[in-house]
Records
---
Amino acid sequence: MKKLINKPEDVLVESLRGVAAAHPELSVDLDTHVITRATPKEQGKVAVVSGGGSGHEPLHGGFVGVGMLDAAVAGEIFTSPTPDRVQAATKAVDRGAGVLHIVKNYTGDVLNFEMAAELAEMDGIEVGTVVVDDDVAVQDSLYTAGRRGVGLTVLLEKIVGAAAEEGQDLAAVVALAEKVNAQGRSMGMALTSCTVPAAGKPTFDLPDDQMEIGIGIHGEPGRHREPLAPASDIARQLVEPILADLDLTGPAIVMLNGMGATPQIELYLMYAEVAALLEKAGVQIARNLVGNYITSLDMAGCSVTVLKADDEILRLWDAPVITPGLRWGA
Amino acid sequence: MKKLINKPEDVLVESLRGVAAAHPELSVDLDTHVITRATPKEQGKVAVVSGGGSGHEPLHGGFVGVGMLDAAVAGEIFTSPTPDRVQAATKAVDRGAGVLHIVKNYTGDVLNFEMAAELAEMDGIEVGTVVVDDDVAVQDSLYTAGRRGVGLTVLLEKIVGAAAEEGQDLAAVVALAEKVNAQGRSMGMALTSCTVPAAGKPTFDLPDDQMEIGIGIHGEPGRHREPLAPASDIARQLVEPILADLDLTGPAIVMLNGMGATPQIELYLMYAEVAALLEKAGVQIARNLVGNYITSLDMAGCSVTVLKADDEILRLWDAPVITPGLRWGA
């Protein structure tokens, strides 16, 4: 295992220490692994909380800030945070207008956020929840029942974060989150496995001449393995299942996401392939992201996310955002 | 070789096609591999041009935009762009107030930019040049005489780009560039080799239990190899040579840069180590960057850059910048 770490069991807290040192605009609790804005938003606005296992950086901690999340709860690597920590984060950021939980559809996350919501409601905090399940690759998997939540989470956190920031109420924010989840789809692939520090060896074996299509962000199995193929063929295998699943013609936001170890020169090359295929199919790419946004430790590979957009979604997308992972307009 | 590419010989132009598709605010010439702003800066301001071999993305093309570069010239992977293309870029962005060339100290780049400057001057364009040579690791190397130009280039392009944007004249911009170069130092290390697509195999062999300290951004040799060590030890081996080379006490801008295949969770962990060592030595970190800014294809590893800062440098650092690779304040 070749990693820039000290002891495997200290990776999360030592990385959070770096986040704290690098970003004075964030507050990082090294005991609970909760990241919040150093300056909370105004009283009377909905707060937005997300979280899940670590190893997907910048998701979620890197999306805390003005216009996006109020708090992120970082579990151990690929492990859901416990309900009490999600509850603590919820309580910490509530500004009297309720809190939205953004949960990726993995069994542990769904259960723990559900329990946290119940605990928070006992504290008198109104909680709304959206469960993101955008991955068209597989139905049911190692970590989840139903579709997995992957890349769309990034776009949803941005759009819903903007709605909360401008003062929309909890019902409106929840409805928007459900709309975004219904209108977005993702699909990923891996050239290599990832290596969880505590395991010390790759999660799975993928021979030097093979790739895996439909991989999950924890290295859980995808649809199938096949020999390495050109980028144009990979792009087709990612785009076609997305388009087959939902009518995405018209304006859209598209993300070409790196899995952690794939350099930008390759991500841009893949984006050119993906964009050409989407546009040929009638998708009008109104906005895009190309880079590492939801990763799987040191996995090499990429994923594609397409979100059907309307004027309202684009307006919220363009609203100012100031986070370590996404920043514009301010 | 596991990469998201089609044919190795098409990687650069196909990646540039992705840059063009993703960034309508840039103009990408797919014949000359020159990236410019779609909307040029006002007449009467100094223009800033950089470039060099590709494979270091986001450097340089990802730093074209308001507040930073006017043009970037992308050579083939790890290969200097030819003088005629640098000349064409210089001519394209000249707004009548002269052009600054930012050149990393590699023999090919220095020669080609020198020739391009002569050609541009024959066209009546005044050219100033700064050669960045911040790498304390080695004196002379496979690609260069003297010290190599590495991470400081990112900081210099931002600071000098801001000075040009606010209307400082060519003499002032050149003097600032030289000051920044004199006040900054870098040092890098690798956990793995990179693989140049055309070569199809790793540039060098680095056993599974070894790392290389003082590596260059083309995989050229560093100071020495040794067994894998904890992050705290690696941090010390990067910071100590920097501090031994220059008095960097007082305010500074610090960059913890990823080499391309190292995930953010590790970069933040390394930043915590590096920041603690620097602060103990009297460096006051006023600003920082943690992420992939000057990479070496799919190399795993990191580098540290420290730039001694004063009020003027910090003011220019904080000025608005709108590029794919760095963005804030607008």
Note: The longest strand of chain A covers residues 250-258.
---
Amino acid sequence: MNRKATVGVDVGGTNTAIGIVDALGNVLAKDNIDTPSHGDIAQYITDLSNAIKALIKSVQLVNSEIVVLGIGVGAPNGNYYNGTIEYAPNLSFRGIVHFVSLLKEKFPDMEYVALTNDANAAAIGEMIYGGAKDMKNFVMYTLGTGVGSGLVVNGDLVYGADGFAGECGHTTLIPGGRSCGCGAKGHLEAYCSAPGMRRTAFEIMVRDNATDSMLADKSFKELSSKMIYDAAVKGDKVALEVFEQTGKWLGQGLADTVHHLSPEAVFLFGGPTAAGDYIFKPTKESMEAHLLPIFKGKIKILPSQLNPGDAAIVGASALVWKEMEK
Amino acid sequence: MNRKATVGVDVGGTNTAIGIVDALGNVLAKDNIDTPSHGDIAQYITDLSNAIKALIKSVQLVNSEIVVLGIGVGAPNGNYYNGTIEYAPNLSFRGIVHFVSLLKEKFPDMEYVALTNDANAAAIGEMIYGGAKDMKNFVMYTLGTGVGSGLVVNGDLVYGADGFAGECGHTTLIPGGRSCGCGAKGHLEAYCSAPGMRRTAFEIMVRDNATDSMLADKSFKELSSKMIYDAAVKGDKVALEVFEQTGKWLGQGLADTVHHLSPEAVFLFGGPTAAGDYIFKPTKESMEAHLLPIFKGKIKILPSQLNPGDAAIVGASALVWKEMEK
């Protein structure tokens, strides 16, 4: 019996991760190449293709029955409709990159090559391999350097008119509030991302002049959400309040999404979710407080079931299975 | 050649409107009955069915070739999946009313009987007969006593996991802000509905002690959005600021919806939209200011193309055509 697998590629700012993933979401083999800083897309596609081909070869040497069905790519500012990466601020490639066409030239026999953004890939990964297997309507929020989201309605990812739907990190949480990386003010991402939590920690230390906090000996640049978590576990008041406040903000944003889409569940993914109840509990309480009575008590907030280390490539690989359903 | 038509029923708090609508959205005949205050659903369904039957008869007397294909119902708290009206605060029927089943008992030969809430019906009406005929992804906001919304993704209305999706009027605009009818604080509906505009007018008069405003001789109870519009046309400063401010708020809310769904257009429907540029211009400016660069300049804000007088029954009737597509 042959064993079907797909390739998942995660294009990050400095590193591109590649994996061969089986139908259950197990990573059979993985590799990394640099995402170039030189902006030479042709060279990068050649390097990436060679790395993918070598990786396919390596798994087939172990098991000659493995058949690779397609390549799924997760990339910042990835546009599913056009197979393009468009004006990604953290990549060295300028303008619009026709990623899927370029990759198809290197894999003329590969039937399925598709691309989407990283948060959408995470949502599809959750649907194909993870906790959303039996759900037709759910939402994925990814908390990290930014806040991304992927929305699923009637079993399909929402791409919208131009392929860029699901930018819930850029909904307005506090009118006129903190500056957001996108140039606007008060967006959810400025509060609920890992850097948002750092801003909150310093905001609280400033307000309380909290020189006794465990976080008070860290520079603004070095303070991470992991450090805030470690301090919260040890009972640090500032750190505990950061989680309380982040949950309040996130819950408000999730309620807005629930009022749009009436999902069965909201999945949370990313570094800050490792804090468990510290973040889930206040988020749930705040979401409930903001919901209409018809939604209260109905919407689950769940941790992603994808393995954090592999989620990006696993999510990207899931895109191929989703394509095959069509 | 026979002429196909559908029945649209709009269940309002005190009045139920019924219309026979042709495939182009023309109302061939219409009638009204009281929505009862006595809560007797069996009697109401009997009265409604008799009125529908009489109306069908009347159009068939004029043109014997008219064939009625189904009945579409728009109702507050209408649940499409269950065909129910659930805990509608402004209706006298308590709890969950199995409206579609009850109506089908009276029309055993009618293949299509379906129900949704009024804002969803307006969105479907726009898609079948109105300005969204060629759109697969758009959003409808209805501004009136409340703010409703209907969301269309890939050509289908979004109902979500439980049938109640599209409650954008209850997204949070101002954290901790004005009390909303639903019990929460700061929801968009408390700012952008007609009563929200009244609150804004008085808020401005209070701030400026504006006894010279044309709105200053109206009681809090009697001031309507139409009066605010009439005063704005005459150059009243308070009234003009109400529209500016309402547009700012509405644009912020629309941007949140755009960031979720990436629609091709947002349609606005309802009394306050009659003010044209007074409301559309600041709304557009504010939406643009809140959008990510990838969305800027792309999203149209359009007035609904449905005739305001008939939109509720026309929208409800469109539900039948949508059902027939399935």
Note: The longest strand of chain B covers residues 3-11.
